Amino acid sequence: MADRLQALLSHFAVSARTFQTGALCGINSLDGEGPYGQLHLIRFGEVEVRHGKGEPLHIRKPSLLLYPKPMAHRFITDATRGADFMCANLSFEGGSANPIASALPPFVCLPLKQLQGCEAVLELLFSEALAQNCGRQAMLDRLFEVVLIQVLRQLMEQGKTQVGILAGLAHRQLRLAIVKMHEEPQKEWSLEDLAAVSGMSRSAFASGFRENVGVTPGAYLQRWRVGLAQKALLQGKSLKLIAQDVGYGSEAALSRAFKAQSGKGPRAWRSGQREAAPTQM
Q1: Rg (CA), the chain
Q2: Which CATH architecture has domain 171-275?
Q3: How far apart are CA 50 and CA 58, in angstroms?
């Protein structure tokens, strides 16, 4: 079976940086103004989570909170007993072009018991947090990244993704075509080719793709190619080489697709990204 997440994670990596291990008491706020998402593990304790003026979320059992994009949130716990937290900042490579961050809801809350197959990872993560072993920071960061992959698997397997790339990757047939586009973006994919890869008729594939992913196969392929081009631009590659790598016959063709997708030409987009580039975690 094709690996649904491999191409996503190899092209658009996600890295974690642990910043909290231990009790949080009273009121603790994250302003959401930085460039990072967050992943919080609540090992024990009761927590009220607030997002602006909306209804608060009440957590009473060990749970996970995932914020794929910057979002202000506030934790309210007992001022004396508090709650035991482990927290990490998440950096999604490609920023706004990262298809994983773009496909997820603003936040995800899951009881830790629902993370099937993650028991050993969580146990190691919690024990490492209490120890003072050499390499502790690196170990915690990598374990948080493993937990995130488990969350992505869980969302797809349980059908909790709605419309978007993760919903497409959760589909038994559509995912075959999506993986092929991810693996071979430079190929001239026709609707008939992609339908054949999925084992579907042309009409069933086209309607099923739009229903599950939210765009046509052609629009999705352009979005994926431009996302790859954005990443390559930030790495300093030339437009000529990028155009060849992502399936456009010329710099002009890439520039047209790039502007249609992002609203700016490649050079103007790169200049804007460099001016707004955040400091490293």
Answers
A1: 21
A2: Orthogonal Bundle (1.10)
A3: 9
Which runs of E-coded beta strand occur in the chain?
A: 14-24, 27-30, 37-44, 47-50, 57-59, 63-67, 73-76, 83-92, 108-111
Distance separating alpha carbons of residues 248 and 225, to the nearest angstrom? 9
Residue 156: predicted pLDDT: 81
Provide CB contacts within 8 A for 38, sequence distance 6+: 30, 65, 66, 67, 87, 88, 89, 90
Q: What is residue 162's predicted lDDT score, i.e. its pLDDT?
A: 63
Secondary structure class of 64 (helix, strand, coil): strand
The answer to whether residue 278 scores a pLDDT higher than 80 is no
- Region of 135 please: left (phi>0), alpha (psi -120 to 50) or beta: left
**pLDDT of 277 above 80:** no
Q: Which residues contact 161 (CB under 8 A, 6 or more apart)?
A: 103, 155, 167, 170
Q: What is the per-residue pLDDT for 153?
A: 86
The answer for residues whose C-beta is within 8 angstroms of residue 172's C-beta and 6 or more apart is none
Give me the residue spans of the domains in the chain. Answer: 6-157, 171-275
Strand partners, 20: 87
- Model pLDDT for residues 41-79, shown as the tens digit of each residue: 999 999 999 998 889 999 999 999 999 999 999 999 999
CATH topology of domain 6-157: Jelly Rolls (2.60.120)
Q: What does pTM read for this prediction? A: 0.81
